[in-house]
Design brief:
Number of strands: 0
Number of helices: 9
Helix content: over 70%
Shape: globular
Length: 170
């Protein structure tokens, strides 16, 4: 995010690659592999990989990692759901939609997921982190030449909505 804000694309790509590596290492740690918080490093790696693909790096969706994230979230949300595990389900859903370049087509689904969570947990202290994570991926998506019209409007609308929930000034 820092390299991107400074306009240093090669350094930003390098940072994203390192992010993938470091979160990948975290996934194989014994305490992470079977933990109820496995989804945390896994979804961050997933977001970094998606961001790299959006920036033109060859690659495909890691279906094995996706399956493990879904299993982790399902287990966590059945046994001891909290704000972060429920938010992660919405994030994962968003990432899959972005991977297909179909945010405008699935706007109602995304809006419902985040809106429902906000109704249950409106506290501003949680929403800045959700905004930052979404902005991290959506900023890469918004830069694509194909992200125009309805799709660009949906990106902007989601980011404005999440930002409003942070309680911070624009």
């Amino acid at each position: 995010m820092i390299e991107g804000a400074a306009g240093r694309r090669p350094e930003e790509d390098n940072a994203l690659n390192k992010m993938c590596d470091f979160y990948g290492e975290a996934l194989v740690l014994p305490e992470a592999a079977n933990s109820s918080t496995f989804f945390y490093p896994a979804i961050n790696r997933f977001a970094a990989e998606l961001s790299l693909r959006l920036r033109g790096k060859p690659g495909r969706l890691d279906t094995e990692l996706l399956m493990r994230i879904r299993e982790s979230l399902s287990k966590t949300n059945k046994e001891k759901a909290d704000f972060w595990s429920v938010a992660a389900e919405s994030e994962l859903q968003l990432y899959l939609i972005i991977d297909q370049h179909r945010l405008a087509d699935h706007w109602t689904t995304v809006d419902s997921a985040y809106g429902g969570l906000h109704e249950r947990v409106p506290s501003v202290k949680y929403w800045r982190s959700v905004y930052d994570q979404c902005e991290f991926v959506l900023s890469n998506y918004a830069r694509l030449r194909t992200t125009r019209g309805r799709e660009k409007t949906a990106v902007d609308q989601l980011l404005r909505r999440l930002w409003a929930w942070t309680g911070e000034d624009a």
